[in-house]
Design a protein that fits this description.
- This protein is an all-alpha fold and 207 residues long.
- It contains ten helices and no strands.
- The longest helix has 34 residues, at 172-205.
């Protein structure tokens, strides 16, 4: 990876536009564009400034053979671990709720999910790169949305209208099964719609 490719990659990871970076360096946006297109190279003072802005070494910027993979691999691992914790929180809340029908059960699950988020943020925030936050939350937003949506559907009986309509078309035994699983299905559907919309927004702004 050459200097221009690294500069483009680092700027996108940091969530900066060319103009925002140019303002920080007191150069023109065209200069930043030329660096990323490999039409020119920044001088030594700008190299030093870029290393501070992106939190990388000047060696990483100047030497094609040096990659910043170790830090990225470590944070990717934390994304996996934190996502597993968030999923455990969701699973715990759902199973406890079905057994005890107590809102405290949902609270326990949400607290586990919050712990997963905190663990991730402890590792991601020091990098000052929005890339990792976007990646983590674009994966986990479905898991995080499910519990509050499920809670609302159970307590407000928002599924009752749908259930009453289907109850007229289905026999008694099937309607009991439907009543048991309908809130779960609706919660999954609504949280998935939110998940898709947020991911679409995130990746649209990441281009």
């Amino acid at each position: 990876m050459n200097l221009s490719e690294k500069l483009l990659k680092l700027r996108k990871q940091s969530g900066l536009s060319q103009q925002e970076l140019a303002d920080q360096l007191n150069v023109s946006r065209q200069s930043v564009s030329k660096w990323e297109l490999n039409e020119s190279v920044p001088d030594i003072s700008n190299i030093l400034a870029l290393s501070e802005i992106y939190h990388v070494s000047t060696d990483y910027l100047l030497k094609d053979s040096i990659e910043n993979d170790t830090k990225e691999n470590r944070i990717d691992l934390m994304i996996v671990i934190s996502t597993c914790i968030v999923f455990i929180g969701l699973l715990s809340a759902y199973m406890l709720w079905k057994h005890y029908q107590n809102s405290i059960c949902l609270l326990v699950g949400m607290l586990i999910q919050i712990i997963g988020i905190i663990i991730f943020e402890i590792f991601a925030l020091p990098t000052h790169q929005q890339k990792y936050q976007r990646k983590f939350f674009s994966i986990n937003i479905w898991l995080l949305c499910f519990i509050p949506i499920f809670y609302m559907s159970e307590y407000t009986m928002t599924y009752q209208l749908i259930y009453n309509k289907l109850h007229q078309l289905i026999d008694g035994s099937m309607s009991s099964i439907l009543l048991f699983y309908l809130p779960t299905f609706l919660s999954l559907l609504l949280s998935f719609i939110i998940f898709v919309l947020i991911r679409k927004y995130i990746f649209k702004n990441d281009k």
